[in-house]
Amino acid sequence: MSDSCMPGFGRRARLPGGMRGLVCATFLSILVTACGRNDPAGKKGTGRGDTVRPVKTAVVVEQVMEHTVAVIGTLAAQDEATLSVKVAGRLQTIAVDLGTTVKKGQLIARVEPQDYELQLRQAEALLAQARARLGLPLEGSDDKIELDQASTVKEARARLEEARKNRERIESLTQQGILSESEREAANASYEVAANRYRDALEEVNNRRAQLAQRRVEVEIGRKQLDDTAIHAPFDGAIQERRASPGEYLTAGTPVVTIVRTDPLRLRVEAPERESAAIRTGQKVRIHLEGDERPHVGTVSRVSPAINQQNRMLVVEADIKNDGSLRPGSFVRAEIITRDDHQSLSVPADAIVTFAGIEKVFVVENGKAVEKPVNTGRRGTNWVEVVTGVKVGEILVVSPGNLQTGEAVKIEHPSVGTAAASNGS
């Protein structure tokens, strides 16, 4: 290859073959880079406003939804009773323990009955004696007797009748001058004595009748005390606490066990004053417990007639049907269903963005994302009730991530609505 002159040089420079190849390659690389910078087809947007972001969307819909009042409270036993002995004595047996399920009338415990059996027999013997004094059979339940039928009254009445006739005869003979005045006075005195004895007989019979009634009551007391040696369950329930043991001497009134009624349970909650006007008896209540995913349903049974002046809350009680999984004392979250035909706006749960306690959504307007704050209400598994902030038919961005307001978006998978919120979900 002959040397020749290049432009800009008076004379061609002589270079080794390897160097000439390196220079040519470097020159071509610079040329390609320069061409790329000047080529309009090679432009790429670098600003955020020039980037179109594909998004998934859903439409705000209106649907029938329950209107509820969210409250917290505690489950309590419907009834709770501490069973005590009514008579003193040594505890003979106790048939239950902690957690034992009992039925109404079931035997719980018994005090040794021998002392009370003897007292009853003594009272029955005194009753028989009182009946005998009135001329009644020793045994029987009919204690009625006429005063004139008592033997002592019959005797006194006969003596009185005899004295009356004797007095009349002597009175007649005295008037005829046959008998003296002293004999008439003696006859009158005898009559007065007989009359007093008759009255005494009547009083004695009345006294015996009263004594008979007293003996009858003593027998009933003896039987009642004998019955009270046994303690029975006053209602269906379960034993919450056992407080005595066999062989222990108990005085009257000593607690033996505590029993609770566990079905239904009593839910006690406090509702805010602003929600109190919508709460009334008969409304449904849905409760949720920690560790139990199933909701339990009950009915509002009692509503306080007044607002608590200290905390401005309304006390509400509901009866909750217990299937055996609920326990008194449990802390629960509850919803009082005040309306079941309320029209509300619903959006997907993943369309809500929460930052620093503020909830917001992104609405698609003119191809761009617009941030709007919202106030939410009820929440389901995949939907949220929106109280304010959006309107029916607006298109929301689902799962916006780090989307910013004003950013251009392209609807990738449009949706016609949100997941339906069914009552009771």
Secondary-structure-derived class = alpha+beta
Largest sheet: 6 strands, antiparallel, barrel
The topology string of helices and strands comes to HEEEEEHHHEEEEEEEEEEEEEEE
Q: Any idea how many domains?
A: 5
General form: elongated
Strand content: 35-45%
Quantity of strands, as a count: 20
Number of helices: 4
Mean pLDDT over the residues: 83
**Distance from first to last alpha carbon:** 91 Å
Write a concise synopsis of the structure shown.
The chain is an alpha+beta fold and 425 residues long. The chain folds into 5 domains: 1-42; 53-65 and 342-413, conserved putative lor/sdh protein from methanococcus maripaludis s2 fold (Beta Barrel), CATH 2.40.420; 69-77 and 260-341, Elongation Factor Tu (Ef-tu), domain 3 (Beta Barrel); 83-105 and 234-258, RNA polymerase II/Efflux pump adaptor protein, barrel-sandwich hybrid domain (OB fold (Dihydrolipoamide Acetyltransferase, E2P)), CATH 2.40.50.100; 114-227.
Explain the layout of strands and helices.
Elements: H1 17-38, E1 53-59, E2 61-84, E3 89-94, E4 101-102, E5 107-111, H2 114-133, H3 151-175, H4 181-227, E6 230-232, E7 237-242, E8 249-250, E9 255-272, E10 284-289, E11 292-303, E12 313-320, E13 331-348, E14 353-355, E15 358-365, E16 368-373, E17 375-379, E18 383-388, E19 395-398, E20 409-413
Parallel strand pairs: 1-20
Antiparallel strand pairs: 1-19, 2-9, 2-13, 3-5, 3-8, 4-7, 5-6, 7-9, 9-12, 10-11, 10-13, 11-12, 13-18, 14-15, 15-16, 17-18
Helix pairs in contact: 2-4, 3-4
